[in-house]
Amino acid sequence: MTTENIIFIEEIIVVLLLIASAVAVTARRLRVPYTVGLVIIGLFITLLNPQKVEFAPQIIMLLLVPPLVFEAAFHIRLDDLRRDFWLILLLAVPGVILTTLLVGWLVSWGTGLASQAALVFGALIAATDPVAVVALFRRLGAPRRLQVLLESESLLNDGTAIVMFGLMIAAALQGSFDLRQSISQFITVSGGGVIVGLVFGMSISQFIKRIDEPLVETTLTTALAFGSYLLAETFHVSGVLAVVTAGIVSGNTSQRYMSASTRLVVYNFWEYAAFVSNSFVFLLIGLTIDLNLLFENWRAIGWAILAVLAARFVSTYAFSLFAREIPPKWKHVLFWGGLRGAITLALALSLPEEGIFIAERGRLQAMAFGVALFTLLVQGFSMDWFLKRLKLIVRSPAQVEYESRHARFVANRAGYDYLRRKSQEGMISEHAWQKLSLLMKEQNDALMYELKLVMSSEPDVEAEELDTAYREALRAQRTALTGLLRDGVIAEDTYSQLVGEVDEALMDKKPFTRLVE
Fold first, then answer.
1. CB-based burial label for 55 (10 Å; 0-12, 13-18, 19+)
2. Contact residues for 390 (Cβ-Cβ < 8 A; gap 6+)
3. Cα dihedral sign for 438, 441, 443, 445?
């Protein structure tokens, strides 16, 4: 690779990062999932510059999927996973198999696609990607258990869908399907991936247990995420399931040995890594979709969308019967939250160019891209409305009243400060300022009194406000300590000790409540 090529790649990465940052800020202000915004921007760039973007699917599987999967698995608590483990397992293993078969049959019947190629499509479309939905859940405050259900199912079905995809590809190329051999291979590949992730994850946890170096421990988790994938693929077992297992093991064992400062560094690093990976994945989805190919195959795409929705409906509602304590509204969200994304894109691009796929590769890719686009734009955009329609996002009257009064107080205070600056600049006469300032100060005092009434009558609202404010104070303390270290006022040992105390408080979900107890 020449120096010019390296510089060109670096320029492309910088441009994509700038685009991702701008889209993330804009999407937050417009209150839409930023991943959906990235896809739209990618499509818009494609319309402006219709040159076809091509890249190896290994870029997604080797570089972008491991950090996405590891970050999500790292934050899953075993207690949360254990509570709905059997439902998650049913959706992720039998659910993927059912989706593969049902989608394959419906697509073959509706489009005339050869059954072997249709089953390949059923496998590559079976993996769900709830990134946009989970981000929305966190912002709106959806039930934690529902979030864990959707995210855990996706983590596991990514691995099983990739295994099924490999089996269907082999069967299509060989022209025959050996059920006994396929079952044996499925168990070997899936189980092997879990074993690799378990062994590698426990080994890295033992290293982390014996050291207390935030950067080194973060580096070890990075090696774990990418190393478990590469090691599993070397042994021809599931790399994605290895990363999932390694992430869960590390998140539930390594964290016990990490200091508060280390946990803060690790959390921030993986949150950033996931953001960058997501940004590239969803931009690539928009950039690689061939709109002309979609228009040419719109009937097949329509059938594929209906088949995917039908299969998701059957698997979600059928297998959730085994978990009777799951509310019906949650089942609706699980059904509508089955978005397709990174894994579907990577598998569609990795379709071989031989055998039955010589003639059908383009149509299969068009159907995969069309389904992914539909789920991201239609289901992703409507999820906010859907959650509110089901009344799953419910705020207490006290919280609504507090937000309203607090907003009035902040707005009035901003107006007061603005007029004070204008008076100091001579833009408003002293006479006008004195009259207005007295009136607005009285309004401020009245609004502050109303806020105190709400907070004193609602302890939960008061506690949340105090914890938020105290957390901001802790961040200011950390910044001040960093400045003292930089200026040479305190030594490294003193800094580490004091920052550790601040980070310990920051990691607490209720720092002020814990302080006064």
1. exposed
2. 329, 332, 333
3. negative
**Taking the CA of residue 349 as centre, how many other CA atoms within 13 Å lie in the half-sphere pointing to its CB?**
21
* Cα–Cα distance measured from residue 436 to residue 440, given in angstroms and rounded to the nearest whole number: 6
- The CATH architecture annotation of domain 3-389 reads Up-down Bundle (1.20)
- Cβ neighbours around 422 below 10 Å, total: 13
- For residue 325, what are the contacts with CB-CB under 8 A and spacing of at least 6? none
Q: Which amino acid is at 90?
A: L
Which residues of the chain are under the pLDDT cut of 70? 1, 49-57, 130-142, 393-400, 454-462, 509-517
Q: Taking the mean position of all CA atoms in its chain, how far away is CA 24?
A: 13
> What is d(CA 157, CA 92) in angstroms, rounded to the nearest whole number?
4
* Domain residue ranges in the chain: 3-389, 396-457, 475-517
Residue 390, token pair as written in the block? 């089901």
Buried b (16+ CB within 10 A) or exposed e, 72-107: bbbbbeeebbebbeebbbbbbbebbbbbbbbbbbbb
For 265-306, the pLDDT digits (tens) are 888 898 888 888 888 887 877 777 777 888 888 899 999 999
Strand residue runs (E) in 38-172: none
Given a contact cutoff of 8 angstroms between Cβ atoms, the answer to whether 102 and 122 are in contact is: yes
